[in-house]
Amino acid sequence: MDQIPGKLYLVPTPIGNLTDLSARAQRMLAEADLIAAEDTRVAAQLLAKLDLPFKDLVSYHAHNEQSRVDLILAKLAAGQTIALVSDAGMPAISDPGQIVVAAAVQAGYAVCALPGPNAALTALAASGLDSRYFHFEGFIPVKGKERASRLQALAQQAETSLIYEAPHRLAKTLDDLAAQGLGDRRLCLARELTKPYESYLYLSLAEAQDQVKRQAPRGEYVLVLEGREAYLARCPEAGQAGQKDLEDQVREKILLLRKAGLRDRSILEVLVDLCDLGKNDLYQLIKDEASSE
Ligand code: SAM
Fold first, then answer.
1. Which atom belonging to ligand 1 lies closest to the Cα atom of 90?
2. Mapping DSSP to helix (H, G, I), strand (E, B) and coil, where does residue 144 land?
3. What spacing in Å lies between the alpha carbon of 26 and ligand 1's midpoint?
4. How many A from CA of 166 to the centre of ligand 1?
């Protein structure tokens, strides 16, 4: 008789409050043939707290994701039910999971995500900021060009942004966002969600900078940042001033490149990917700059 293929379940686990684990998630952890866990010790502790029997646990984390895929696909082929858990919250959301889910989908296995705890959506729901459209950023890369480009993208993001940040990097991230001209944006700083000391601070980004200077951040944070559209609807004059600042900065760059001997076409090619101006507007600025010399 042919084997009935198995199924991969994504099982969200509590982000701070054990009772947030759903009855269905608990049943899945009890009944799965195998639990694939970001950290098997964390998963074992959860099973112990829930008084669930210990069973086959296999690690599935950022450093072995790719190599674990074959094993998990083989177990699915053998008809096993696999529960995938991360240390906290929804697997595959700023956590390992996406690679094995993609492989299982590609191979034609059924994948089922159970609804449950997630820090970003919990913070968004309580933020009071526009929740109709939002952008999930997760962790901003910690350094280099990748960080610079994500910070720039966040500054232009029309919709509310959801950002994860570690406490020891929070001050730097707030400073870097402020350097993008976002000091006046509204921010909800959601801390230690679902835990006894859960808190929400509703303030501007500049006020949050002051706050973390006064009191060193501790615990886990989600930043819910007002989007550009909501900000400009609230402060239309900021849009005009911002456009002027942007054009002034671009003019400076044009002057520098021209001094370095570049012609108009080359200046356009260099700046078009670096500036938040349309190609035509940028070309017009380059022309205007040339005629004003
Ligand atoms: N998969 C998880 C989820 O569904 O939310 C996210 C995992 S990610 C590795 C961990 C980050 O999520 C933390 O650094 C923090 O930014 C955020 N986070 C997790 N738990 C949180 C909590 N209880 N309160 C605030 N933020 C939390």
1. 4
2. helix
3. 20
4. 9
Global confidence as pTM: 0.85
CA 162 to chain centre: 6
292 CA distance to ligand 1 middle (Å): 52
Ligand 1 centroid to 15 CA: how many Å? 7
* The residue count for the chain: 293
Give the residue among 63, 144, 68 at the shortest CA–CA distance from 103. 68
Q: Is the pLDDT reported for residue 14 higher than 90? A: yes
Q: What angle do CA 130, 134, 135 make, to 5 degrees?
A: 145
Tens-place pLDDT, residues 49-97? 999 987 789 999 989 988 899 999 999 999 999 999 999 999 999 999 9
Spatial distance between the Cα atoms of 204 and 61, rounded to a whole number of angstroms:
36
Please tell me whether residue 112 adopts helix, strand or coil conformation. Answer: strand
pLDDT at 2: 63
Residues with CB under 6 A from ligand 1: 15-16, 86, 88-90, 93-95, 118-120, 164-166, 190-195, 220-222
Helix segments in the chain, DSSP class H: 23-31, 40-49, 65-77, 98-107, 119-127, 144-156, 167-177, 205-214, 228-234, 236-259, 264-271, 279-292
